[in-house]
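Subject: complex prediction, re-run

Hi both,

The earlier run crashed halfway through, so I resubmitted it with identical inputs.
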Amino acid sequence: MRRRSRSFRFTMFVASALLLWTLALPIGAHAKKVTVVTSTTDMAALTQEVGGDKVSVESIAKGYQDPHFVEAKPSFLLKLRQADLLVVVGLQLEIGWLPPLINQSGNPRIQVGAPGYLDASQFAEILEIPQGTVTRAEGDVHPLGNPHYWLDPDNGRRIARGIANKLSEADPGDAAYFQQRFQDFDNRLTAAEQKWEGEMKPYRGRKVVTYHRSFPNFAKHFGLDVIGYVEPRPGIPPTPTHTLELIQLMRRETCKVVLVEPYFDLKTPQSIGRETGAQVVVYLPSVGGEKGVEDYFKLFDYDIDLLIKAFSATR
Amino acid sequence: MRALNFLGTVLLVSLPGYAVQGDTPQAASANPDNAVLMQKIRDLEDRVIALEGEIRQMKAQEAPVAPPAAAPANAESNTHAAGPTLQSQVPTLGAVTSGTGTQVVLGGAGGSAAKALNPDISAIGDFISVAGHNPVQPSPSLEMHESELGFQAIIDPYARGDFFLSFGEEGVTLEEGYITFTALPRGFVAKVGKMRSAFGKVNTLHNHVLPWVDRPLVTNNLVGGEDGIDDAGVSIERILPAPKGIFLEATGQLFRGDSGTQQSPVFRASGKGDVSAVAHLRSYRDLTESTNIDLGLSYARGHNNLGTNFLTQLYGIDATLRWKPLRRSIYHSFIGRGEFTWSQRQQLPSEQRAFGFYTSGDYQLGRRWFVGGRFDRSDRSEFANLTDQGASAVLTYWPSEFSQVRGQYRYTRYAGNIDTNEFLMQVMFSLGAHGAHPF
Ligand SMILES: [Zn+2]
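This time it finished cleanly. Structure:
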């Protein structure tokens, strides 16, 4: 009996000591800036555009990394627990890694449904929303619609506006600043859009193949025709049968460009290129995919430049 | 809500319609107002998209369950697929009806609100076949080893709930069932319910995320076998301040004091005071963007099956080295692990001090192939002078992320020089909601 209560007291002692110890420690210092963490670099770039020097922004994923398969590293928790605002792409793009990070962050501000959680997909035009039932016979489909929606400048503008409004809520004192930054971004984007559209105009209707379904919004905006994918189904690696079918399709449709995201192996795309005479282009789906591509404008500059080179070299 | 949806739909349909009607005559006559009208259309389009988004937000608020991006996921399940909208469509293969047409759908509204109220449901099947003779730890030739059902949802903005029911061939156990309070003040995260305790690494992992078919000898001999330290209680964790770049986290847990299988009980509560406690300190550091190291210290204390007066204490060190190049993260990776456990068990005539460990390495050869090896050695907790050791080689193939085929060759030399050679074959498959990948 004595022994039992002693051991019980011991455990209670250990537990309460742990509790007191952690309680006594200061929580990380809070800067005046709004601390924003984003799941991807594109959301970070757009936040930076409207947030200026009133925010500090950091992205969890790198621009050259497959955003479906980010590891839930504890070092990200250090960022998340300081965050005032978490901006996510949504539509289940981050479902394989972000939920446990949010849970373990110990940060009530960024929990789902809390004011500091912002799902940017609500602002954007979403394509490829499956109708009816979805099964995994179709591969790792995105059942809520295609989450690779940020490669349309119009969506970029909409997201930026949404983020500016959210920042204004989080930091009402700087609301005018954020709105002013958004106006400025809007003007620069409109000018850039005219330039990009002009550059891409001669190639409207051109056919392309992409590795993953990460290009529909870009294709729609600039009038390109995505006729097929290197992946037989989303998230399923290329199979010989599918590759053969794709080669035949590309020959039939005289498609001369294969676009590959920087995180995929180039072996299959290159063999497709050899068979069809198509150019294999490693395009960037995200800001930061290459050195120098560090903002939203440079992302389009980079990709459009690549596309124009590829299109003009093939017919 | 219905009215709101209706309103949204009406706006959605009528606004562009109105805009196009207004636009047509002018466009035809190359009027200078053209640009103004185009701008108007753009503005209207933006407003429609914004409205759609608002409607979806309201839908999400109506249902306390996560909006699209936040579909809850389990830190320990390695499946990767669709979320809430999939839950009722247990793969009827072939019934492919998703029309990803060219039709413009704005805002990406998720599943219906009614569906959003349901938790994410997942099922994982684990089939094991064993060839070879093992007189010490015999296993059946063919076995549906485990069928795990998971139910997970966000309960409210302050908490989430997770249930994992494990159906063996003989019965059902609640493997885990707990609420996690995610919005506590001062960075605390608390769990209440039944859970796998934070002692080391392997003890926290469900069978289907292990890199092997079986569990290491040290788990079987010292840490409660397949179920491990898995008990009802309370857990509190918090990230601790640490030098920049270092992640430090402390976990303290208090349990009823019943853990382990009948054959190898770690803790047994003979009375209400016989609670067990587990403490874990984890430190983590990124060495480069592709390499990181994870170190843990664990301590567990409870009463054993001899009664209230007999304590068992466990001390553990775990180390994990991971490598995964970000640009090719889906093709190559390496994980090296080691766990070292010391057991101090009070019994008659004298206390037994046992030690055991395993070290393992797993390399991803390509998108679908993994090879690995493990070395095992462990004393037995009740007879510390008896030592078992062994080695395994493992080959894993992933047809997709939702199924896995694994072969393991296992050599074991049990105490008393009993040699066994076995070949284990495992098929695993997962249905339903998308879980997060373990780390
Ligand atoms: Zn995708």
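The longest strand of chain B covers residues 142-156.

- K.
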